[in-house]
Design goal:
Helix content: 40-55%
Number of strands: 17
Structural class: alpha+beta
Distance between the termini: 79 Å
Amino acid sequence: MRERAELAGRPMFEAFPSASGSESHKSLSRSLERVLATGEPDEIALIRYDISGSGGAMEERYWSATHTPLTDERGNVLYILQHTVDVTELHSLRRLRDEVGVVQRAQAVQARNVDLAEETNRLRTLFGQAPGFVAVLEGPEHRFLMANDAYRSLVGGRDVVGKRVSEALPEVVRQGFVELLDSVAKSRTAYVGSREKVQLTSTELGENDERFLDFVYQPIVDDAGEVSGIFVQGHDVTEQVHSEERQELMINELNHRVKNTLAIVQGLAMQSFRQVEGSETARATFSARLHALAAAHTKLTSGSWKAASLRDIVRGSIEATAGLDASRVVLAGPKVPLPPQISVSLAMIVHELSTNAIKYGALSVPEGRVDMTWTIEPQASYRRLNIVWAETGGPPIDRPERGGFGLRLIESGLSSHLPSAAMVDFRAEGLRCTIEATLWQDDT
């Protein structure tokens, strides 16, 4: 009931208005937008879209529509051809159950089609923007079905979709990765690679680029139980590997320099002690302390200066000081990782306690023993470490009238920048040392 002149040149929703928030408006808008976005035809099986009647009042109408893009030679959408069928009468004949069933089925199909299209678009977007590289290979030839942005970036921007792995990435064939894919498909067992080295050819420079990858080849099994393809997912960890290699070189250089420094300090001390008559005992004590410090440093270096085990630090310091008598020191406590500074301090304290026990305490007699225990008390934002060194079976020991360097070192605690305290109790049954320290959650 409209003339051509009334419609030509006017926007769709101006010529045939509907509320912008209505389902009619949204359904028609989405269909047109899909055609513009994909360049593919789109169908609306059933849509209610009311129009103005002859008297100007809005009439309830139902339609079935097809939107077909008309493109230029480059594939750009210039026009959309809308073919619309008025199915209001069919929709209105509710007494005819068959026709009503058709309408209901059409509504269900339309709803499912819209949901599936939107879900597919969401999944494609998520797949393309995944932070790790992802690809899907199909068939025994391992042909690329999909590859996300990260995967294409990894292989130098090459267009791999639709091609076999051996065709798209010929350099990986001689490196055994196609054989590995064959093995995964045959065994139906996933393969997990960790920091595997792969040479990839740059399409821009034509040179091999060495990369290190963490990845998984996961077989895709269809309803018949057959392997239909392989899912590839992983991360490029090249920068992390190179960073760790540089860190290892720096740590080795640091260890070398510290050992040289300790050797120089020991040499200077020995030369100085020679000038002092009767300094043999002091020289031996100094050398033992320097050895304990070097042992703790070596332990931390072997772990790349990361958190060290409390048990390992304590056991190493006791064995270096007490030798065979180390078996008479019983250790008990949970697994506790310690930051480097606290590890060094604890090693020095245990050395002093062991030395004192050998000279004057429980380890100076065959029947004596030492129990060293520790506990961890979790708090809201930190953990409290409690350590107890308890000697039994040794000779009575009194607190010296004047504390020496060893006692001052012990009572200074584990750290100057963390809450820490140590107390030495010279009991009749044997020396007892209690150490408390706060470990923040990120200290390890």
